[in-house]
Amino acid sequence: MTLDLSLLPDGGMPWITASGPHADIVLSSRVRLARNLSGFPFSPRAGDAERLRVLHQVREAAADTALLSRAILLRVDELTTGERHLLHERHLVSRELAELDAPTARSGSAVLVGDEAALMVNEEDHLRLQVFRSGFDIAGAWERAAQLERELGERLPLAYHHEFGFLTSCPTNVGTGLRASVLVHLPGLVLTQEIGKVLTGLQQMGLTYRGLYGEGSEVVGNFFQISNQTTLGRTEDELCDHLARVVAHVISRESEARRVLSRDAGYIIEDKLWRAYGTLRYARSLGADEAMNLLSGVRLAVGMYLIGGLSVYTLNKLLVFSQAAHLSLAEGRPLTEIEANLARARYVRGVLAVEAGEA
Amino acid sequence: MTLDLSLLPDGGMPWITASGPHADIVLSSRVRLARNLSGFPFSPRAGDAERLRVLHQVREAAADTALLSRAILLRVDELTTGERHLLHERHLVSRELAELDAPTARSGSAVLVGDEAALMVNEEDHLRLQVFRSGFDIAGAWERAAQLERELGERLPLAYHHEFGFLTSCPTNVGTGLRASVLVHLPGLVLTQEIGKVLTGLQQMGLTYRGLYGEGSEVVGNFFQISNQTTLGRTEDELCDHLARVVAHVISRESEARRVLSRDAGYIIEDKLWRAYGTLRYARSLGADEAMNLLSGVRLAVGMYLIGGLSVYTLNKLLVFSQAAHLSLAEGRPLTEIEANLARARYVRGVLAVEAGEA
């Protein structure tokens, strides 16, 4: 199976356009629902034949839904490691699916990618449906996810317990099976050193934070994924509302921090951010983390109106497409780290030169 | 007195054009001759009236010479500190003349600036004539200096002792009164860590090295001034020949070091130098030493054909005009260090944008 990404509008990333509210601070809002089919063992314990039957049933059901009727099916079990990593870099499959060492042992793992929603099949749960929205729009993501879930539920026997709610492979997801999250960029709070307080506050409000790539990923480039920690004992609306209220507060804290930086460290911060831009424009080798950090600086500069003529859409694209698996696929071969660093610098330079009208 | 630099072709810096041999490695070749008039105390011990009489006589004599007949007279004793520093940044007056705290106490100190030669009057010696040439051209500098000295000697009673030679205020200059020097850029030898050996070798050959601004100045940006240490016991031709032979060897060592860097550290060095260019293109604040170091990197990149479309002439100009006194004069007022750093970054950005065809 060859991955033809040209079939996916914006490469399966509707959030990348930066067209949503507060897109300079919030990259994306996501709602994910975990569901399982009754009558089958959970995916990790299911045999190949069972997993393939799950995939077959889910596929049929999805074809009848508004959000996934025209979705593309990607058989993760048939993709190369590089292709799976690429899907992970786009947040379309989990790290777990990307890291599979023996794809045959996981036959039936797949992802359906639609314009607005994606559906992982045979990951930790039989179904992991997710909706991404650009900017700060948890309600919009939840609305679409709920609609998709309703349509699937009408066609599939979802495992549900009257007391626990939806049953999931891992008990931390039981109940609503919902994880709502926002990917936020908080360089202002990092630079003013207020980030510690804000993160502690989040945890006290029952939320949690992670790096750009979810569970177990480090925070790089001042990008934080904030999400609900519990899935049980509250309704989906309550969970989403609560997250939205707290994130709205974080956004205002970040905006305030940027005002303070402008006022108290004007030329110092301006100099720092323009230097980041200069390095991205001309470096011949860029490490993955370094590129992320420099892009973070330029993103802040654009948000503070210090650098003009550069869109957040372009910066979002750079963030995704400058990652190792994307570079490998673009070059048509696996790359060593040194080669990837050279390819990354070349790619970033090219995009920024075009954006500056110089190429 | 107001300093009208527009009267000076290339601002009194014929060497800046980078038109001479090996101009990518050798910025300038200079021959300086120290002379005194008999019948007057040395300048540091002379009274105001004597100093003014010296200036008067020198001026009359210079008007009859080929190299200084159309020279501009700058009365250093009437210039502001800023203007004097500016002349020092152009290597037209010594640090000593620039640092004068009480200009009236040094009445009669002046510099005659011609197209090809300059003549300081009433510095440590009554006359300090110097000829700068672009690139590696000690013979050319010596030839013109000798001609000027002959013409002046025919019109002025130069203090000469049959045994010691020309008498000078400081015994280290006695004899020929000659200092021949080349300003070389040796980043290749610094990066390959061979510079220590080369500098030790110079000293063993009776030469000495200093920073960009001569005696007591630190080495910044890998710019070294190499000159003869002794002035006595050899003829001027011998001193110049010896320096030229050793410098020719240093140039070949530097070229070899650059080849080694290209071969062994290709993309690493390319990346480093392009980053320097990126910082110069976009930084909002640049310290004096930092700018010098970054310009040094870009100069190396141009010499190694890694960066095109940028002339060594422009880099020479940036080196001189981005210094504090030049920036102050351009802004029309004294600048604090922070202001100078901002002005420096603005100036460098502007010049490089023009050179890149973007402004």
Q: Report the sheet with the most strands of chain A, covering strand number, pairing sense and barrel closure.
A: 8 strands, antiparallel
How many domains is the backbone of chain A divided into? 2
Q: Tell me how many strands of chain A there are.
A: 10
Overall structural class of chain A, as computed from helix and strand content, comes to alpha+beta
The topology string of helices and strands of chain A comes to EHEHHEEEHEEEHHEEHHHHHH
Oligomer kind: homodimer
**CATH homolog superfamily of the largest domain in chain A:** Glutamine synthetase/guanido kinase, catalytic domain
Q: Estimate the global geometry of chain A from the Cα principal axes.
A: globular
CATH architecture level-2 label of the largest domain in chain A? 2-Layer Sandwich
| Portion in strands of chain A | 5-15%
Low-confidence runs of at least 5 consecutive residues of chain A:
none
Q: Report, as a whole number of angstroms, the end-to-end distance of chain A.
A: 35 Å
Helix percent band of chain A: 40-55%
Backbone CA Rg of chain A? 21 Å
Helix tally of chain A? 12
The interface involving the most residues is between: A-B, 19 and 19 residues
CATH topology of the largest domain in chain A: Creatine Kinase, Chain A, domain 2
